[in-house]
Structures are given as structure tokens and as C-alpha cells.
Input
Amino acid sequence: MDQNARDLEILLDAGRIEARVRELASQISNDYRGLTPHLVGVLKGAWVFMADLIRQLSVDASVDFLGIQSYGPNTNSSGEVKITKDLDVSIAGRHVLVVEDILDTGHTYHYLEGVLAAHHPASLRLVTLLDKTSRRVIPVRANYVGFEIPNVFVVGYGLDYNQMYRRLPDVRILALAPSS
Ligand code: IMP
Ligand code: MG
Output
């Protein structure tokens, strides 16, 4: 696996992402006016998006991170989710906004939603930069979606393939041999 990042087709360029992140932030700021949402970023994929999103918010927000591993070296979600880093502070009574890079089968967020809801947040919502609705196995929905994308494997803007390509400023399509 050694595809030159520059050869990968751009699905969403940096300018489009920036404009959409701005819109999401303004919508979120309106919805949480008068509140201090608690942003929970899902590591590692969401950290680039979260860094851009939080700087466009006009309400104060606190931040925490959850480390999750749902994918091994291949690109098929096994449905198995492992927490690799727990939250640092309690979310009880907080207005929690989970920040995800991408919703795919829905396994990861379905699991997270259960874990987080058990800690009694005042509210629990999800913002995802990307949404592959056609791939959904479990019917989870995000409250805020940056872009609906087709069933392609994407990298860049924090998203990886085998830990590579996270640094790319655009979201690009990684051509993969079909897996079973
Ligand atoms: P789900 O559990 O199938 O919804 O998978 C969600 C997780 O799978 C995301 O948080 C990503 O880490 C990973 N993932 C799904 N699709 C892609 C993709 O196209 N590129 C990179 N990571 C992906
Ligand atoms: Mg992820």
C-alpha cells in the first residue's frame, strides 16, 4: 500500500470543508446559545475537524476526548468497539456534543451513545463531518452532518488508512481492492 497522496482523487477540497465547518459551527452556536456544550471528540479521526469547529463556535465549550478503536488494519467494521482512552471528566448533567469524523455502519456511535447516555448527560447530540448513509447497518443518526458521501473509502483531514494520510488538508478517495 503505497499510493502517493497527491494521486488520490479529491472528494472535498479544503475550501469546501472550511465553508461547511463554518456553517455547522454557526448552527451549533445558535442551538446551544446560553449553554456551555461539552465537546467529546472521538480519537483519533475527529481531532482535526474538532480543532477547526471549536474555533468557529460563538458559545463557550469545554472539551474532552474518547479514544476508540473500531477498525483494525482493514477497512471493514467488525462491529467491535474498544475504548482506548476514557473521558477525563464526568459528563453528568452536561450538554454533550460528540464530535465524529465519519458515520459508516453506525456500530461505533451506537456503542458510544449507550456508554455516554449511561452517565446521564443533560443532553446528548452528535456532529459528524462525513456521513455514509448507504453503509448503515444500525440506524443511528447525527444531529449535524457536514457532508453525505457515497460508499467510498476516504482519507485526509484527520481520517486515516492504517494511520496514514491524516495530514492531508482535503478529503480524498482511497482506491482499495474490494474486500470480502
Ligand atoms: P462505523 O462504526 O462503521 O460507523 O465506523 C465509524 C468509524 O470507522 C469512523 O469513526 C472511522 O474511524 C472509520 N471509518 C469509516 N469509514 C471510513 C473511511 O472512509 N475512511 C476512514 N475511516 C473510516
Ligand atoms: Mg473514528
